């Protein structure tokens, strides 16, 4: 059972050792409709915090400053990272000192800085980067543009990964990268304005998602897939109470790398099928491949337990994706081809084991898939 709400896992985790070498972010993505044309466009909004123990009066960015890194300087800031996918795509970053940021660390969390805010049920704010600023500040790792938003957040279905992100394992920082999706299926409502164009976000069409990651470093390879825009191959109808999610890569526990592990779940019309390697008693096994062609990024994942099987094939056009940028807490930037998109598409096959054989439950198509794939630079 993975659909278990746990807002304590949405708390701000940068306390203890992670205050000096840690990141913690809250991520939200959704589809909006152009107020004039009705055109659909996917967006994301992320509040990313890093190394509060090293906060200064201004944000500290060091990934492209070898002198600062050699002197042992560490990054520290709130990065408000917003972006959009499709034929036109981009990422906009606004950096604010953590000394100028109000964070309610315990559940339910909240983050407020300048005119930007995020908590479990609401987010609003603005990011504006001029072309001159983007060119003059490569350390900001972003494009030029302007985006404002005001959204209600209603998290409907969770993906709780289990004891791997429990309070005990969080306390001892057992994993290098933790994950919790309190809103694997989330309904958003409100407005977004991108470069002067207004977009409407509706609960019934937003295909929304919300999660968080935290830890001391990132994973490589990095894999993520999720959508609740799913159409049944049996009925031909949209499955309004369904969502799937897959994520992971090469997790590290106490600096020991586990070879190519993924966590996954499919909430299929009220039935919960979980594929979680940490729950060894379920017999969970995963095989996956990810790669790229000239035009696309692709993922093929096969997950099995003693009771179920899911086969996932997703593709996303490179021309609609970002190479999303993050600075690690140690001040390096090793992910420079981290493909990130919101317009993935593909097929899902779900099976149940009956009398020793896997029988097909449904073969579905899915669109608007949030997706990531990347490996560290060699």
Offer a quick outline of the entry:
This protein is mainly β and 378 residues long. The chain contains three helices and 25 strands.
Describe the protein in words.
This protein is mainly β. It has a single domain, classed as Beta Barrel (AttH-like fold), CATH 2.40.370. Helix content is 4%, strand content 53%. It contains three helices and 25 strands. The strands form three sheets. Strands 1, 2, 3, 4, 5, 6, 7, 8, 9, 10, 11 and 12 form a twelve-stranded antiparallel beta sheet that branches. Strands 13, 14, 15, 18, 19, 20, 21, 22, 23, 24 and 25 form an eleven-stranded antiparallel beta sheet that branches. The protein is globular and about 65 Å long.
Separation of the first and last Cα atoms: 38 Å
Q: Report the CATH superfamily.
A: AttH-like domain
* Element string (H = helix, E = strand): EEHEEEEEEHEHEEEEEEEEEEEEEEEE
Number of strands: 25
What radius of gyration results from the CA coordinates?
A: 20 Å
- The low-pLDDT segments are none
- CATH-derived architecture: Beta Barrel
Q: Beta-sheet strand percentage?
A: over 45%
**What does the largest sheet look like?**
12 strands, antiparallel
Helical proportion, percent range: under 10%
User: Can you tell me the CATH class?
Assistant: Mainly Beta
Strand pairing plus helix content: what structural class? mainly beta
CATH topology label? AttH-like fold
Shape: globular
Mean pLDDT metric: 93
Number of helices: 3
What count of structural domains?
1
């Amino acid at each position: 059972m993975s659909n278990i709400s746990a807002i304590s896992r949405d708390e701000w985790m940068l306390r203890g050792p992670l205050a000096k070498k840690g990141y913690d972010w809250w991520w939200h993505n959704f589809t909006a409709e152009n107020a004039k044309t009705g055109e659909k466009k996917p967006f994301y909004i992320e509040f990313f915090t890093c190394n509060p123990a090293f906060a200064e009066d201004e944000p500290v960015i060091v990934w492209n400053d070898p002198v600062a890194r050699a002197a042992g300087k560490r990054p520290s800031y709130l990065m408000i990272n917003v972006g959009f996918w499709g034929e036109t795509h981009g990422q906009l970053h606004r950096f604010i000192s953590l000394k100028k940021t109000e964070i309610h660390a315990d559940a339910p969390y909240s983050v407020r800085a300048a005119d930007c805010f995020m908590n479990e049920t609401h987010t609003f704010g603005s990011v504006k980067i001029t072309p001159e600023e983007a060119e003059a500040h490569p350390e900001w790792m972003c494009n030029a543009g302007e985006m404002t938003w005001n959204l209600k957040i209603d998290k409907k279905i969770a993906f709780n990964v289990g004891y791997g992100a429990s309070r005990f394992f969080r306390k001892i920082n057992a994993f290098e990268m933790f994950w919790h999706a309190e809103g694997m299926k989330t309904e958003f409502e409100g407005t977004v304005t991108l470069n002067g164009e207004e977009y409407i976000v509706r609960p019934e069409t937003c295909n929304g998602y919300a999660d968080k990651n935290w830890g001391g470093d990132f994973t490589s390879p990095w894999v993520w897939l999720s959508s609740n825009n799913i159409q049944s191959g049996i009925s031909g109808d949209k499955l309004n109470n369904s969502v799937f999610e897959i994520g992971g890569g090469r997790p590290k526990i106490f600096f020991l790398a586990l070879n190519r592990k993924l966590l996954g779940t499919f909430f299929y019309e009220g039935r919960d099928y979980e594929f979680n390697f940490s729950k060894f008693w379920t017999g969970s096994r995963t095989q996956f491949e990810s790669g790229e062609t000239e035009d696309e990024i692709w993922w093929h994942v096969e997950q099995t337990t003693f009771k179920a099987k899911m086969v996932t094939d997703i593709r996303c056009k490179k021309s609609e994706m970002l190479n999303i940028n993050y600075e690690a807490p140690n001040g390096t930037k090793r992910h420079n081809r981290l493909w990130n998109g919101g317009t993935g598409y593909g097929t899902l096959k779900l099976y149940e084991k009956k009398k020793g054989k896997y029988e097909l439950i449904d073969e579905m198509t899915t669109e608007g898939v949030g997706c990531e794939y990347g490996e560290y630079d060699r």
